[in-house]
Every structure is written in structure tokens, then in C-alpha cells.
Design brief:
The chain is mostly beta strands and 120 residues long. The chain has strands at 4-7, 10-12, 18-24, 34-39, 46-51, 58-60, 68-73, 78-83, 92-100, 105-107, 114-118. Strands 2, 4, 5, 6, 9, 10 and 11 form a seven-stranded mixed beta sheet that branches.
């Protein structure tokens, strides 16, 4: 079973940027589709972005399209989520997981998450 370790969150002001990292336990990460999910206060967990296995196609939720970029470094078994133009509604705990992609349906276990707080 895959394991994930998320990092990179923090407290930022509106309009600023943060880059999250997700380290995957399998060195052959390219054979899995990986997604980023977030749980915002008072809201259900939602899929934010995913990167598809093998071909690396990327998909985004409408709420983050044009602001967030998902990428991966297969040599480091790490998936990144670069978040620009952050807004208070982006506040939440961010998790990565194996995922159906597109579709943002997580499969299996999550990491511990990393918290992003956007506030002035």
C-alpha cells in the first residue's frame, strides 16, 4: 500500500504563493495517478488537482484552475502542488493520495496532511 508524506504548508497572506510537496513511498511513482485533496473548515473534502499515471496529464478543480499547478519529479518520487494567488477560501488541510484521475476519487490511504492558512 502506498504511503504519502505531505509538507510545505504554512500561514500566508492573500495573493501569496505556497508550494506543497508529497513524497510517495514507491520509487516507481509514474505508474500511479496521484491527487491533491483539501479539507477546508466547514466543508467536505474536495479534489483539487491530479496528475495521471504514465502520461502525466494534469487536471484541476474549477476553483483552482489557472492558479494551481501540479507537477512531479519521478526521480524523487515527489508530487508538487504550486499554489499561486492564494485566497482565504484556499485555507485547509491538504492531502495527497492515489487517485482516479480525472475524477478526483481517492484510493487507499492518505498522508498526515499539511495545513495551509491564508489570512491577512
Amino acid at each position: 500500500q502506498l504511503r504519502f508524506v505531505e509538507s510545505g504548508g504554512g500561514l500566508v497572506q492573500p495573493g501569496e504563493s505556497v508550494k506543497l510537496s508529497c513524497t510517495v513511498s514507491d520509487q516507481y511513482m509514474d505508474r500511479y495517478s496521484i491527487g491533491w485533496f483539501r479539507r477546508s473548515p466547514g466543508k467536505a473534502i474536495e479534489g483539487v488537482s491530479c496528475i495521471k499515471a504514465f502520461d502525466g496529464r494534469t487536471y484541476y478543480a474549477d476553483s483552482v484552475k489557472g492558479r494551481f499547478t501540479i507537477s512531479k519529479d519521478s526521480g524523487k518520487a515527489t508530487v508538487y502542488l504550486e499554489m499561486n494567488g492564494l485566497q482565504p477560501e484556499d485555507t485547509g488541510d491538504y492531502y495527497c493520495a492515489e487517485s482516479y484521475c480525472p475524477g478526483f476519487h481517492p484510493v487507499g490511504s492518505w498522508g498526515q496532511g499539511t495545513q495551509v492558512t491564508v489570512s491577512s
